Amino acid sequence: MSNIAKTISRRQGRGEGLGTNKKAIPFNKQDYQTLKQECLAKKTLFCDPTFPAESNSLGYNELGPQSSQTRGVQWKRPKEICSNPQFIVDGATRTDICQGALGDCWLMAAIASLTLENEFLERVVSPGQSFTENYAGIFHFQLWQYGEWVDVVIDDRLPTRDGRLLFVRSANGSEFWSALLEKAYAKVNGSYEALSGGLTLEGFEDFTGGISESYDLSKPPPHLFKLIQKALTLGSLMGCYIVASSQETEAKTSLKLVKLHAYSVTSAKEVHSNGRLVQLVRIRNPWGRVEWTGPWSDDSNEWTTVQPEERAKLVYSADDGEFWMAYSDYIQHFSKLEICNQTPDALSSDTLSHWSFTQFEGDWKVGSTAGGCIKNTVAFCSNPQFVIKLEEEDDDPHDGEIGCTILVGLMQKDFRKNRRFRQNPNTIGFSIYKVPNEFKGRSNIHLGPDVLQHQRSIASSSYSGHREVSERFKLPPGEYVIIPYTFEANRSGSFVLRVFTEKEAAASLVDTDISANVKKEYISENDVDPHFKQFFNQVAGNDSEVSVFELKQVLDSVISKRTDVKTDGFSMETCRHIISLLDRDGNGKLGLVEFQILWTKIQKYLEAFKKHDTDNSGTMSSYEMRDAVKEAGFQLNNEVLQVIISHYANQQYSIDFDSFVGCLIHLEMLFKIFKTLNKKDTGKIELDILQWLCLALS
Predict the structure, then answer these.
(1) Which of 534, 543, 639 is nearest to 588 (CA)?
(2) pLDDT digits (tens, 9 = 90+) for 54-99
(3) DSSP string computed for 64-102
(4) Which residues contact 588 (CB under 8 A, 6 or more apart)?
(5) How confident is the model at residue 246 (pLDDT cuts 50, 70, 90)?
(6) Chain region(s) in the chain for CATH 1.10.238.10
(7) 669, exposed or middle or buried, with CB in 10 Å at 0-12, 13-18, 19+?
(8) For the segment 648-694, what is each residue's pLDDT rounded down to a tens digit?
(9) What would you measure as the largest C-alpha separation in the chain, in angstroms?
(10) In sequence order, what DSSP letters do the residues of 521-585 get, joined into one string?
(11) What residue ranges in 365-492 does DSSP mark as E strands?
(12) Among 655, 674, 654, which Cα is nearest to 664's?
């Protein structure tokens, strides 16, 4: 019940703007201003209890408590490391990011890219922090985490060895913003070790809230250079690297490119050289040194073939880790390009174009919405579904192809944090289906097996075990359904689904309206069959009323004789719900007419149960349950179905007949109560604490 309350509360918070960059959620419920004022009042320095200066914060394996790599590590505040520590000196620059003894160059490249855009930097690195004015040993940063911005509080105790920072540091030994940002990022991911190994696009996303895509440069799309240029006009961040074996990590090529090292892409231009146009890209090494020495490198002869006025527009000669190279050489020497596209709220400049953006959160719940891939033909349709309407074609497409550009990203949550527990990530993917003509224009479209088994997807992602899988598509105008899934069925997980389009597009969660259509039974005692009266008198005894105990006894006796359904007996809770629903005179028992209505209901429930028990197992699978509940007159959405499965299914996620009856009786009772209390027909009810407790305990 508490988890349901948390979900409802969180949804209400989202409606109030919580989780945006302007209204970030305090991570671990730690409010920066409150904690800082408490420390200033007590004249103490902040010590973070949620990410303590202990070995567990360093890591769990290679940086674990017993590891030789963590011997001699001491946690020190900047004032213990140097005499005059500064938060930022003369603005944040790429020389502030020098990689330490941690394999997180991907993160360093992402941080270095932040220094190119003050707007991005100030969203992450909150201004006004220092080691002098109101210093209390506490700092904070804002990071995007799985669909929402969080404000992360840290203390300034940093891991050192022999008086030097163990991890990232500034070339200026007295500057600490980058080391503190790395610590905040380690905190949200569980430890420093969790940051080892990764893709630059992950850091891009967590510093901007953008959505990423990746390109294999051994087989680039024909218009990739134009796409890079367009991405730069959209404020996108870009990174690239050279694939190599783990033994070649940070090995240098003959032309001074570093393998398995994360670079940033900062510009793409065309220049005239000897009467022909040459496509150039500008690359940055986060080390701030070691540059490409091939054609178009700093001071190479190729620059003499460019007119001085054109050459003056390009910074091309400085030993700063940034260099130009021909696009043709770029795709030959580098392996992967990663582009992080920005949400509209990330960019305030009027000179930049903006994507249209929609975001959804969802869950794969075992037994209800974890249907697996299309190979699981019956269960696939139970995965969450999202509908999008593409109505306008792109303006001036970079590839010359008419249609609607759509960029879809599916991200699984807690990707790095789960490493500590040896939990393998899910293999995830998504498929896009065209809405059949008969469903067009309808709200709450849900594609069932009758559609999905006979219609191929119009577009699909590849499967991925990474944090996110994303793909760019060009689709004709129309209505589409996006289905995110785990490759294997019954794999639980939470996800964020994001959709970028060049034009405005309406998108929404496909979810069924909640309603009940249960016919009331109107019968009199004269309508009851004489044989049934005789049966009732045998059950009821001398008082001609069926108590909860007598009801359980007769239901168990009758249903146990059937071989086509399985049951372990009706619970007292179910029997009490039955009486609560049907007891008209309030004496806590069922009379003849009430018992007749119950018997008719159970007959109908039995028919629905057998009809949808498609494998004749005698039980209802959680996926069969969806249609069986609908047959009984209840339209429920995924959230309610998830609660039903968690409450009524067994360990194998199957529901026997007595649980099926109990579920339907309980549903009917709840709908009846809601209708009674919803006096103004607003779809909402208000309860005081007494009403709530009486209702919840009934």
Answers:
(1) 543
(2) 999 998 888 888 888 888 899 999 999 999 999 988 776 666 677 7
(3) STT-GGGTT-EEE-HHHH-SS-BS-SSS--GGG-B--SS
(4) 547, 548, 579
(5) low
(6) 525-697
(7) middle
(8) 888 888 899 999 998 998 888 888 888 888 888 888 888 889 888 87
(9) 111
(10) P---GGGS-HHHHHHHHHHHGGGT-B-HHHHHHHHHHHHTT-SSS--S---HHHHHHHHHHH-SS
(11) 385-390, 404-412, 428-434, 459-460, 468-475, 478-486
(12) 655
DSSP string, 6-30: HHHHHHHHHHTTTTBTTBPEEGGG-
pLDDT category at 17 given cuts 50, 70, 90 is low
Three-class SS of 595-635: HHHHHHHHHHHHHHHHHHCCCCCCCEEHHHHHHHHHHCCEE
CATH 2.60.120.380 intervals, the chain? 355-511
Task: Enumerate the CATH 3.90.70.10 domain ranges in the chain, comma separated.
Answer: 211-341
CATH (residue range 355-511): 2.60.120.380
Tokens matching residue 257: 């490119």
| Reported pTM | 0.79
**Residue pointed to by tokens 């006009």:** 233
Residues marked active site are found at 105, 261, 285
The CATH code that applies to domain 211-341 is 3.90.70.10
Residue whose C-alpha is closest to residue 354's, from 242, 458, 210 = 210
CATH classification (class only), 525-697: mainly alpha
Handedness of CA 202, 203, 206, 212 (dihedral sign): negative
Residues 6+ apart with CB under 8 A from 214: 199, 201, 336, 337, 338, 339, 470
Cβ atoms of residues 356 and 504 within 8 Å = yes
